[in-house]
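Researcher: First entry.
Model:
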Amino acid sequence: MKNYLFWITVFLYLVSGGWVKADNWTLSVGGGAIVHETPWKDMPVQYAVLPYIDAEYGRWHFGMQSGIFQYRLSDEQWPVALSAGLDYRDEGYDSMFNFNDDLSDDPVFDGYHAPDGEVAARLDMNWQHLSATVSQDVSDKSKGTSASLIYMYPVYQGNRGVQVKLGGGFRWLSDKYADYLYGINGDNINPAQGRFAYQADAATNYQASVQLIYPFAAQWAVNAQLTHERLDDSIKQSPLVDVTSTTQFMLFVTYRKF
C-alpha cells in the first residue's frame, strides 16, 4: 500500500510540475474507503481510507483498475476492448494490501512465512457488460495463473446517469497459485502450531456483486460496490482458513477531467 501511495504522489507531482501535460490525459481523481474481509483464521476486518486515481493517455492506462500499467491492443472502433500489461499480485497472508497493522492472533500463524507478492503479466477483455482478466506470474514466485470472468448488468439507468448494476462471475486460481497462497509446505509445516502439510488444488471462487454509480454534478460521481465471494473447497480446507466466504465494500467519490 505504501508503494501505491508513493506512485500516486510521483504522478501528481509530474502533472503539477508540467513534466506531464495534463491536457493530454483523461483523469479521474478522488478518494474513498474499502472494507474487506479476508479468509485467514481470526483475521480482523481490513479497512482503509485511500486516494483514487485512474489515468488514460492514448493507449496507455494507469491507476487502481489497471495494475502497474495497461496498454490497449484493440482499436477504439472494435466492439471488444483488449489490453495487456503488468500487475502486482499479493493475496497471501500479511499482504501489503492488508490495510490494518494488526494481523491474526491465531497460533497457526506463529512462525509462518507468508508468500511474497509477485509481478504478473495481465490480459484484459471487455465486451458490453462482460469483462475477463487472465494474470500469469512472471517473477518466478508462484509460477501460477489466475483468471476472472464477471458480468455486470445495469438493472436501472436514470436520466442523470444514475446506474444500478447487478451481476457476478467467478475467479479461478491454478493449482500452483492456490497452493502458493493456501498450501502448507517445506519449513512452514509445523503440526505443533496446527500447520499440517497441505497441498491446495486449483480453485474456483464464485462472486455476486451490486454496484451503484451516482453522478451528482457534471464531472463528480459516487461509486459504491458490494461483492460477496464464496470460496472453493480447496481453499476452505487449508489449515490457514476458517471461513467459507468473504465480503468487500468499496465507496469512492471521483472527479473526472477530460
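Researcher: Second entry.
Model:
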Amino acid sequence: MTSTTDQTAAPGAAPRTELTPGARFRRIGGGLSLLASGTLVFGSLLMIPYQNQTHAEYLQTGVDHTSNILWAAVPLHYGYLLLLPAALTLVHLARRGARKTSLAAMVLSGLGAGLSGIVVVDYYDVALANSLPADEALRIFELAGSYGQGALIAAPSMIGLAIGTNLAVFAAWRARAIPLLPLLLSVVGWLVFFFFSGDAWLPSVGTGLMALGLAWAGVIVLTMRDEVWDRI
C-alpha cells in the first residue's frame, strides 16, 4: 500500500492555518445578505399601508397608492433575491452540526428565489387598476388568477421561501451557531406575515420580526473571525 504524502490527513499533523481563498468575502457577503434581505422586505411593506381582504380592495390599492406600489416592488424584489444567499450563509454555519436539515433548507430556499421574479406582476396589477373601470379590472384580474397553472409556479416559490428560510435559521440554531431568539423571531414573523396578509400593518410587523431575526444572525456572522468561519 502506498503511503500518503498529504500531511493534512496524517495523524498528529498540525491543523491547517491558512484560509480557504475567498473565505472572508463569503463571510462578509453572507453577513450583509442576512442584514439586507429581511430589512428590504420589511421596508417594502412599510411603503404600502393597504387593506386587501378582497380582490377589489387589492386593486383599489393600486389606484390609491400607485407610486408607493411601483417603488415598493423594487426593494421587495431584491429582498427576496437576497434571502437565498442569506439562507446559504446559515446553511454554511449548520453544515456540520445539522447536515440533513441544512441540505433541505438549501433546496427549498433555491425554490423560493423564484418569488423575486413574480413581484413584477405588481406592475401589471397597477396598470390594470388604473386603466380600466373597477368592475372590468376585477373581472380580468380574477380570470388571470383562475388559471391553475400559475399556482404551480407561485406556490412552490412562496412555500420554498418561507419554509426554506426558517429551516436554514433552525439548522443554524440546531448546530449551535446562533441563539434561540433569532429563530423564534423569524418563525413568528413569517407566521404573522402569512396569516394576517390582508391587514394594513400586521404584515409589516411580521416582516419586521423576521428582519430582526435575520439581522441578528448577520451580526454574528460579521463579527465572527475568518478562521472560525472557515473551519465551521
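Model: Note on the second entry: The first helix runs from residue 23 to 46.
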